[in-house]
Design goal:
With about 375 residues, the protein is mainly alpha-helical. It is built from 16 helices and no strands.
Length: about 375
Amino acid sequence: MTGTGLPYWRLSAFYLCFFAVLGALAPYWGPYLRAEGFSAAEIGQLIAILHGTKIIAPNIWGWIADYSGRRMWVVRLGSLLAMLSFSGVLVGSGFGWLALVMAAFSFFWNAALPQFEANTMNHLGGADHRYSRIRLWGSVGFIVAVLLFGELIDLFGIQVLPWLMLVVFVALWVSAQAVPDASQASRGTRQEPIVRVLARPEVLGFFGACFLLQASHGPYYAFFSIYLEDLGYRSGMIGLLWALGVVAEIVLFLVMHRLMPRFGARVLMLSAIALAALRWVLIGAVPQSLPALVVAQSLHAASFGVYHAVGIHLVNRFFTGRHQGRGQALYSSMTFGAGVAVGSLVAGLLWDVIGGAATYYLAAGVAVGAFALAAVSLRR
């Protein structure tokens, strides 16, 4: 892959740094907010803001990138402004201030990835089934951050987290400088309007299923670490469990280029959703059992790894040429944005009312709804 002009290591380095930021946010931001004195409902709202900016930001920046053709300029600017905005966490800790800071830094941070995904797919060209071999380095970055930051938090306390994250944001901005723009893919001289693409039943159903599946992840992203802390797990062990899920994801990415041609997008997507529902049931039913949690976290290979690889593949097929950037932006905003934001917000409202276990059972039910919608819409 590295001998054909593909900037493999430069692409991989950006993914590593981008998902290292997520490796700090996903396991430890909830506990950090609780240490700052926020309630479950307030934590749910703040994390919903983090994901909610994905509804708007990727589409604004996607439009700019599609019409300017300067995808990496968008990525570099977004990375720089995210780094500068996040430094506001060091200035204040009130709910209003943190809400503003999280809205600002996530607006720019969330703008970068969809355009980088489109740039990566253009670099790959006809070898887009090999996307997972580059994306797996994002999983490596997530694991390194989870394990390293977990140990540092155990040693120095949760208050060290913003400083650690700021270092990773600097590395993200530096890595963005090294990646070149790929020539924009053009698949035919005429293209139907993007509104018509969105109106196709299979596209609408795909986005709907993705939205529901990511909404089912809301309790996981917002409260999994808090859930385990309340059961007596240490930060280091919680970090290991998060890392285990991503190790399983890496294994999946290493073989995904063989699975996609063999089984096809529909079978793989349905399998991913079904295993996600099983994962939430296990976390809700037997969280005291470490072996059960190991199995549940191993299912991350399906609920995220298979799902995301298939999702990127389908978006790259649905949205071609000048629609690529906005297609990736819509995928990001409708699923990891609106889906996780709604799921986090609802989980925050329900957590203290019905309890953690019942919230995870509800998430499993939402995943079942995603399965039904995908089964119908992806029959073509």
